[in-house]
Amino acid sequence: MPKARELDILILGPNTMGIINPHIKFYCTGSHVWPRAGETSVVAQSGNMGTQLIAFAEQQGIGIRGFSGSGNEAMITIEDYLEAFEDDQRTKIIMLYIESVKTAEDFSILPSVSARKNRLWS
Q1: Do the domain assignments include residue 51?
Q2: Strand order in 18-21's β-sheet?
Q3: Interstrand relation of 37-44 and 93-97 (parallel, antiparallel or unpaired)
Q4: pLDDT of 68 over the 90 cut
Q5: Nearest-angstrom CA–CA distance, 63 and 78
Q6: Cβ-count burial of 14 within 10 angstroms (0-12 exposed, 13-18 middle, 19+ buried)?
Q7: H or E element: which one contains 3?
C-alpha cells in the first residue's frame, strides 16, 4: 500500500465484490447483475448484501448511479465512497450497507455535510 499511495494509485478492497457504473455500461463484479442507469448509488461492505441490493434494484427497475463494494477497506473506506457519491451530480439517493466503521470521527461528520448539500438522512 505505501508504494500505491506514493504513486497516487487507489486500490479497492481487498475482498471486494467490485464496482458498477451503468451509465457507461461498466460492470466489474463477480455477479451477473446488470441494473439500468439511474440516480441511486450503493456502497456495501458485504459483497453478498451488495449483490442482493443490486439484484433487487434490477428486478424492481430501480436505476443505479453506481455500486461500490468496499470490502475490507485497506485503502478506500466507506466514508470515502460516501463523500464521493455526495459530490456526484447524478447521485440523488445514497444507500449504504455498513458492517463496521473504522473511525467514528470520520463517519460522524458526514451527516452534517449531507445536510449542507440538502440530502436527507433517516
Answers
A1: yes
A2: 26-29, 18-21, 64-69, 37-44, 93-97
A3: parallel
A4: yes
A5: 21
A6: exposed
A7: helix 2-6
In a domain, 122, yes or no: no
pTM: 0.83
Q: What is the DSSP letter of 22?
A: G
Range of the domain at 70: 2-116
The 3-state DSSP class for residue 33 equals coil
pLDDT at 31: 87
Q: Of 19 and 82, which is predicted with more confidence?
A: 19
What is the rounded CA–CA span in Å between residue 32 and residue 48? 12
Structural contact between residues 26 and 19, judged by C-beta atoms closer than 8 angstroms: yes
Residue 50 near residue 67, CB atoms below 8 Å: yes
